[in-house]
Structures are given as C-alpha cells and as structure tokens.
Amino acid sequence: MPERHVVLGVSGSIAAYKAVDLASQLTQAGVAVHVVMTESATKLVAPASFRAITGLPVSTDPFELTNPFAIEHVSLADVANVFVVAPATANLIAKVACGIADDLLTCTALATRAPILVVPAMHTAMWEHPATQVNVETLISRGVGFVGPETGRLASGGWGAGRFARVEEILGRTLALLGRNGDLAGRKMVITAGGTREPIDPVRYVGNRSSGKMGHALAEAARDRGATVTLVSAETDLRLPAGVEFVSVSTAAQMYDATKAACDGADVLVMAAAVADYAPEQKALTHKLKKSSDGLVVRLTPTIDILASLRDVPVRVGFAAESENLVENARAKLHAKGLDLVVANDIGGPNPPFGSDESEVVLITPDGEERLERQSKRAVAERILDRVAARLEPS
Predict the structure, then answer these.
(1) Are 5-178 and 188-391 the same fold in CATH?
(2) H helix intervals, the chain
C-alpha cells in the first residue's frame, strides 16, 4: 500500500465522470485513492469504475459492513492525507459549510483533520448565487482550498463559470498538498527551463533544441517534496505545472532579470534552461528582413552568464550539455562558477536528450561524481533533488 492516501469525495454533478480520470492519475502517481460517493453520484458513475481504477473499495453507505472503512466515517477521515471533493455540487458545498453530516461523504468531511481541496462543478447561475458564494467564502476562511471552477462550455450547452477544473490542475494541487511535509518543505526554489530565443527580426531568431522537459520535471518533483517553486521558463510546448509560480520569458536578458528577481530569498537555484550563449548584436525588431542573394551576416555578442552572476543563493545547480570530454568540461564549469552540482548531458552519443522523456546524465559535485543510467526525466529530477536536499543547511 502506498504511503500517501487521498480520500476522493464524489458528489452528484454531471462532471462526476471526470473524477474517474483524476482517480486514475492519482493512482498512477503512487497514491492510494479511497473513493467516497454520494447516492446521487452513483446514478451518474458506477462505483465499479473507481474500484477498477484504484484497486480499493468504494464507500457509499455508512452501514455497509463489507467495507472496512464504511462502518465508521472516522476511519476514512483518519486515513486521509488529503481530502479532495471533486466534483462538488452547490448542495455539497452548502452542507459542508453548515456542518451538516447526513451521508458518508459529509460525515467524513466533518471528521477529517486533513487538508480539504474542493473542486466545484455546477451551472453558472448556481455558482454565482449569493448563497453559494457565501458558503465558499466560509470554507475558505476555515482553510479549505478551491480549484476552479473554470469558465467554458457547460453540460447544459451554455457558457459560463462552473466548469470542472482541468484534471492536471487538480492533480498538481493535490500532490503539492501531499508533499507539504517533504524534505524540501519550507524551501524556496527557483528553477529555469526551456531554450531562450534571441531575435534577429520579428520572425527569425537564434535558438536551440531544448524542450524544457527537464526543468518542468524538476519543478513538479520539487513541488511534490514540499518546496515553494518558481519556474522561469522560455517558450515550450508543455503544459504549465500546477501548484508552482510560473514566469514566462523569451530572451537570455529577460531570463536573467526574472531569475534574479525570483532568487530574492531563495534557498536553491537550478538552471536547467538552455540559455543562448550569444545574441544578435543588431536586431530588426519592427520589420522582417528580406531575403537577399548577397546573404545575411549576423554578428553575435555574448549574453550574460546567469549562474556566474547569481552567487548569493545558498545552493546552485547548473547543467552542462557537452559533445566531448563530458566530465572534464562539466567539472571545469562546477569550479569556475562555484556550483554545488552540475548535471552533465552527453549530446554527442547515440541517444541525445533533446525532446526525449528520458535522460542519461552524470551528477558532478565537489566531492565526486555519479553516473545515472538512462531513465525518465522525473526519476533523474528526484536524484538531483536528493543531492540538493543533502546540501541544504538545516532550517
């Protein structure tokens, strides 16, 4: 049984079917998901769907003797590390706000001491009704968190606020709550990602092949271990990680400014971004340069070295993409910039890391080196954060 437990309360909104996807993604993340359904919810989604996804009993009746959690609502309340109500109807929100406990879900909500995360889903008029808004404000004042609702097309065919939030957003917020007591809890981390783009004209730019996947994996892993994360990222095709502060940049100069500002009071800086070493000296920012048979000469000038410039952060991690002399060049970077760790990528091998979901790296510290065999970027991120956590002074 996983060590992390989420009680997932499902009430009678038409969006109840989306909770199956949420349960699936939580389970894939290694979380034990204990589903509690209202009677209305069972009319919309069969409990067997959740049972098949989670591998655990689904609780619907407080007097069902075959369920080890059903006879006493406090059992579910006690097992929960986080209690997520998704979807939450206006009726369910009103009951919890007023302390009404007339079914297993509301009894569990009243009994639990775990953080509660509510995901509303209802018609716009019901969401905007003054009574609902007062109930939401009451729950927020008691420390209950909310995700959504979003504005969009509703099941009724109308358009407005009340749509179930993106599952990725709910997942990220839940994992962040589960990691609130992790080994990086209370730490502020700044992580950069993506490849900067240095404009030649409004259409063309000097860039690189970075996908940003490593930086995003680091941000999500750090979030799940309790850190407060700021992700400074150049343009990528990736979804924004939920539960982190996101700062979008384009050029190396913009990344320097944003990273410098974010590092105020930071404990850790991880420069996973592929920052351009050079930028065009002259830029045609207002018009596109026309193609010419004479060719085009672009003079490049060095960009600022962000890691070398930001030396006040207690723990600093750099990345080195090398096509030869991998360890030697990465170690030289470690010493020249006074880093705590360099993650060395071999880009000259048969499996270059660009755009891949996996990486094969060497972790280099002042004390030695460790070669990591090819594995998922998330697994590599966890190993990097193990090293980071070990180098942080006790808080």
Answers:
(1) yes
(2) 18-28, 39-42, 47-54, 73-79, 90-98, 104-111, 124-128, 130-141, 167-178, 213-224, 252-262, 306-309, 326-336, 377-391
Q: In this structure, what token pair is assigned to residue 314?
A: 């207690």
What is the pTM (predicted TM-score) of this model?
A: 0.83
CATH code for the domain defined by 188-391? 3.40.50.10300
Q: Which whole-number Å values give the CA distances from 130 to 133, 135, 338, in the listed order?
A: 5, 9, 57
Q: Residue-wise pLDDT tens for the chain (395 aa)? A: 458 999 999 999 999 999 999 999 999 989 999 999 999 999 999 999 999 999 998 988 776 655 555 455 567 888 899 999 999 999 999 999 999 999 999 999 999 999 999 999 999 999 999 999 999 999 999 999 999 899 988 877 788 899 999 999 999 999 999 988 899 999 999 999 999 999 888 888 888 888 889 999 999 999 999 999 999 999 888 888 888 999 999 999 999 999 999 999 999 999 999 999 999 988 777 888 888 888 888 899 999 999 999 999 999 999 998 778 888 889 999 999 999 999 998 876 666 666 687 888 999 999 888 999 989 999 999 999 999 999 997 76
User: For the chain, which residues make up each domain, given as ranges?
Assistant: 5-178, 188-391
CATH numeric code, 5-178: 3.40.50.1950
Catalytic member of 208, 325, 329, 345:
208
What is the chain's length? 395
Is 329 known to be catalytic? no
